[in-house]
Amino acid sequence: MARIAECRDEDVAVLDVVLPSESATANHAQRYGRQCAGAGTYLIAWRDGRPVGTCEVRWDGCAAGEVRAVVGDCPEINGLFVWPESLRSQGIGTAFIRTAEDLARGRGVWRMGLGVGEDNVRAAALYRRLGYRPVTSYVDRYAHGDAEGVVQHVANPCTFMVSTLSSHRE
Question: What is the CATH number of domain 3-164?
Fold first, then answer.
């Protein structure tokens, strides 16, 4: 099993080396910067002393206007990423979500949201199993550098899902 911990300053350089920099979710310095500013918590999954995934909790909610119109500033689990792919379906995603929910409860927050690409059936099934329900559709728009350093613009049809958190973990 993986150990989930908040990102530290010295972890950013390690993440840049170990996790694929061409991934849209791998802007480690930016996510860590939001954590330092209090706008997020950047979580890392560690296994055998090596980072194997990342996930950010955005305390100020989803950036997509169409989502904010429906759920306001509901905190969002964003950019959940497990690498390499061979480690997926081994409980790391669940551990990220449960850690994020525990952090929310500690802040007195009783609902959590997350977006999932319409083509990511496997992740959507996990989120439903963990109590998240579809609330609204939206298009997640972002840019990232590819392996050659060319900026790629992405428009990904998604569903935003929300879970009402109980006062204790189920």
Answer: 3.40.630.30
| The token pair that represents 92 in the structure block | 């790391």
Q: Give per-residue burial for 20-58: e unless 16+ CB within 10 Å, then b.
A: ebeebbbbbeebbebbeeeebbbbbbeeeeebbbbbbbb
Task: With CA atoms as reference, report the closest residue to 32 among 64, 61, 50, 10.
Answer: 10
How many beta carbons lie within 10 A of that of residue 161, not counting itself? Answer: 21
Domain ranges of the chain: 3-164
Q: Convert the pLDDT of each residue in 144-162 to its tens digit.
A: 777 777 888 889 999 999 9
**Prediction pTM value:** 0.90
H or E segment and range at residue 105:
helix 92-106
Dmax (CA) of the chain? 47
| pLDDT at residue 102 in the model | 97
**Encoding tokens for residue 168?**
């204790």
